[in-house]
Each structure stands twice: as C-alpha cells, then as structure tokens.
Design goal:
It comes from Vagococcus fluvialis. It contains eight helices and no strands. By secondary structure, the protein is mostly helical. It folds into two domains: 47 residues; 116 residues, no CATH class. Helix 5 packs across helix 6 and helix 6 packs antiparallel against helix 8.
Length: 175
C-alpha cells in the first residue's frame, strides 16, 4: 500500500513541478518575449519591408555575410521557424547552406535573445540554471555561447555550400 501512495505522489509531483515551471515562465520570460516580438515587428514596419528586402539581398552577395549576419538577422527578426523563409533571397545552390547555418544558430542565440527560439528556451534555462542557483550572471555564458555559435554557423555554411556545389556539379554531369 505504501508503494502505491508513493507512486501516486510521485506521479502528481511531476505535474506539480511542471505547473510551477509554467507559472515561472508566465511571470518571467513570457512578458519579455512578447515585448521583444512587438519591438521587432514595429521596427520592420518602421524601416519598411522593401528596404529590409533590399538589405537582405545585399547581405547574400558575400559568403561571410551570407553565413553570419544574414542568418543572424533572419533568426532575430523572424524567429524559428519563420527565419528559414529568408532563403528566398538566395540562389538555389546556396539555400541548403543557409538553412544549415540558420538551424545551427537557433539554439546559441536563445541565451541573448530568447524571443528568437522560444521552443529552445527550456534547454537554455536548464543549462543556465546551475549558474543562477549559484547566484552568478548567465550573461558571460550567453555571450560565449553566441560567439561560438556564430563561428560554427559560418563554418557550416561554407562547408555545406561547398558540398552542395560538388553534388550539384556531379548531378548535372550525370544527367
């Protein structure tokens, strides 16, 4: 009988912990996310969609901008998963590499800009909870994580673009 009581308490305890976490998100990060999303949408409206499009096309001409600044802007302004729609500004051969870069950034950006990928927020809070438990700032970790993420997306973009060009060439010579 004691076993069943402990099993029932453990079972309901999982849901109580989940509820406490949800309340923490509602009173903590969700207001920040809502304000950030509102700001980003207002900024795009003030700048003008045509100007944003022109700027995006300019960013795709240079390989370093294409796989650093361009994915960063896409993830920051459109968030995950809408950021992948920025691929429309690229040639077909560059789209796989852009997607690889953007999808690789949606986690490292979360520490600094939680609105960019709210779905990954639980991972970031899990990682950073050790620091907050110790009373330490999470910002140094967030900045380092972001910098490493930017280096990784550049490398992934360049490598994936190179592989795509090779595969594209091999595919067209066989056809």
């Amino acid at each position: 009988m004691d076993f069943l009581v402990k099993l029932a308490e453990g079972f309901i305890g999982i849901f109580n912990a989940g509820g406490e976490n949800l309340v923490g998100l509602i009173t903590g990060i969700l207001p920040t996310l809502i304000v950030l999303l509102t700001f980003v949408n207002a900024l795009i409206a003030m700048i003008g969609e045509d100007r944003v499009t022109k700027f995006a096309r300019m960013c795709t001409k240079n390989i370093f901008l294409r796989y650093t600044i361009f994915p960063l802007l896409a993830v920051f302004f459109l968030t995950n998963p809408m950021c992948y729609s920025f691929g429309r500004f690229l040639d077909e051969k560059q789209k796989p590499a852009f997607y690889d870069s953007a999808v690789s950034l949606v986690h490292p950006i979360t520490g600094l800009f939680p609105h960019a990928n709210a779905g990954e927020l639980f991972v970031w809070t899990g990682i950073s909870s050790g620091l907050t438990t110790l009373g330490l700032s999470v910002m140094p970790l967030a900045v380092r994580y972001f910098i490493v993420g930017m280096i990784v997306i550049l490398l992934r973009g360049i490598i994936t673009e190179t592989i795509t060009k090779i595969m594209w060439k091999n595919n067209t010579t066989k056809a």
